[in-house]
Amino acid sequence: MLTLAQDVYDAIVAHCRTDHPDEACGIVAGPAGSDRPERFIPMVNAARSPTFYEFDSVDLLGLYRELDERGEDPVIIYHSHTATGAYPSRTDVSYASEPGAHYVVVSTAECGSGEGPVEFRSFTIVETRITEEAVRIVEPPPPSETHRWREFMQCSRAL
Predict the structure, then answer these.
(1) Are the C-beta atoms of residues 74 and 96 closer than 8 Å to each other?
(2) What is the pLDDT of residues 27-43, one digit of tens each?
(3) Which domains are delineated in the chain?
């Protein structure tokens, strides 16, 4: 199960709507080994395409160095589909290189850049095996209770 804060969910959806009609892409990082998506990192779709996304190789290299320095992992790798449903394409599967990550696909096919509903789904992709997982959206704690949030996320991971 993917558990993420409402503000992270909102940021992903907003990015996907903003980049429509091109596919949007990005990462949500979290402490290494934690499975806690905490830091939203929108990326530029180097392909600038409505049917394909590609991280800029220089930006991606810089991001992975930064993640390393901060002791973080890419917990969520997300992108949008602008004309089809929220399910990984063959190309998406072939580029999935983080077996521990949650691959989120957001379909903006029905709403475009407007306020209508989006389809938001999460998958694990290991080799060519795609497994859909439940998504749970939760309210983040006030900053003074961040330690409790980390404990909650750790407990919910065990569910």
Answers:
(1) no
(2) 999 999 999 999 999 99
(3) 2-157 (3.40.140.10)
